[in-house]
# Entry
Amino acid sequence: MKDNKELYRMSKEELFMYMKADGNGLTTDAASEILEEKGHNVISESKKKSALAVFFGQFKDMLVIILIMAAVISMFSGNAESTAVIFAVIIMNAVLGTIQYVKAEKSLDSLKAMSAPHARVLRDGRKIEIPAENVVPGDVLLLDAGDMVAADGRVLCSYSLQVNESSLTGESTSVDKTDRVPEGEVGIADRTNMVYSGSLVTYGRAEILVTATGMDTEMGKIAGLMNATKEKKTPLQVSLDDFSRKLAIAIMIISAIVFGIRIYQRQPLLESLMFAVALAVAAIPEALGSIVTIVQAMGTQKMAADNAVMKELKAVESLGCVSVICSDKTGTLTQNRMTVENVYIDGACINPDEIDIKKQLHRYLLYIAILNNDSSIDGEKGIGDPTEYCLLTMARNAGLSNAGISEENIRQLMPRMAELPFDSDRKMMSTKYMIHNIPMILTKGATDIILERTENIAVSDGVRPITPDDRKKIYRQNEIFSEQGQRVLAFAYKETDNSQRLEPDDESGYTFVGLAAMTDPPREESENAVMEAKSAGIKTVMITGDHKVTAKAIAERIGIFEDGDIAVTGQELDRMTDEELDGIIENVSVYARVSPENKIRIVEHWQKKGRIVAMTGDGV
# Structure
């Protein structure tokens, strides 16, 4: 299969020819043949160790080998008591390590629920639902809001499709998908005509030509890279191995000297040999291995109390030696929940908590946020696009709940008459309602697009024509929000006729209401965690698929990015030689728009400098 880097740049005709498919889907027979050839659409994992293999793997350390040798020598020398004690210690260590590994495996298995169980495809010209594992390259996949994408694919036609790809790219906001071919070569996060396995459809619908399944998907490639990584010994294991070698040499030398002295003193040969062997056995610290195992087990239990699953006992010690933390952004350092942080209204920037539903201008802002919105809130869970969900949350927090009003009450009182969904060409969404017996068009979208179509501005004492100075202030505020890594939406409305239709030509003559600036805010504990790591001499690096401006803004807020630090994008990293990266890596605190291969390269360069690196978050 040709790499997706080339598939996303093909025209549809070239793509169909290469994939030997078309937009009508596969026949059942053709799909069966491809399934037999390509295999099931599943991510294969590295072969799991059996409990028995894990148990015997505990005997690889040099100290354990020396203890086994001591036990064997004790056995042949007739010292049954020492033999039994040493073997008991060795077996106890192995059992503890095996139990921890098996318990962790069970915990991790229960956390694996990312794959889509079913998928809708076109087969034999009909829409059918099949198990996701039976999706094959060449299938036409049908996506709707709420679907988990079952395989990588190329967009054939998009109806306002938006996809959350945070599990792959780290970008919090949904990405607009289109069937247009991007110009030039772009990274995964900017391939707007591709969708990827494991992503979530948050808005719209689309038809997708499946281009890769299973281990050929981007998620599969990540799994392949992880499976290919070789296990390294921890610093403690290296130290213990070195200590054990030196101890073994010292014991052999001393025992040989003592044996030689006794022979020189004309002591019986067998007695001298037994004395030297006994000395060697006595000099071996039999309890050292069990002490290390018990301490590691105690650390594992303490980590478990903080909801951290440790697969192997030695991982506790590795974490204690970490000197660099490479952290994902979305959901790790941030909440992975879009939140309105600032509102610009009536010529001033206010906190969302300052919105007052008693003020007419503020009510108009809330009307647009609620009505021009396809998301909903189910308990504490948002359904739909994260950006629209955060607007509903803003409305609730603005006092709707205290006034005994819900967004559903407002939607029932003011039913939607018509709509023009958001698309990447218009960069806005418009809906039509009857508000207080006045037919109105409510619109939200990109600030520059809205302002181009605006004639008036709503202020506290009414509506007046918008002036060049008004526009200048709005544009400047939009720039400030954007420089802070926030996503900005403009809100506007216009009075219209009473018809049930809404056309693109109707999207003009607006009255500007305000701006809402949204971001995925840092977790409350992130700043303190970064400061604690810094005080312990640990450098924290943010590695994310999100945009550079957004990543840098969050990194500055939580103390990762400081004066003199550098932010690098994945494309810039691809152009660097290994020598260039080695020269700047100590000063780079933020990597943005990076691919999984970029992440592994960054970690490997830190390891070459002798650093112990921990990787956290979805980016792992």
About this structure: The two ends are 26 Å apart (CA to CA).
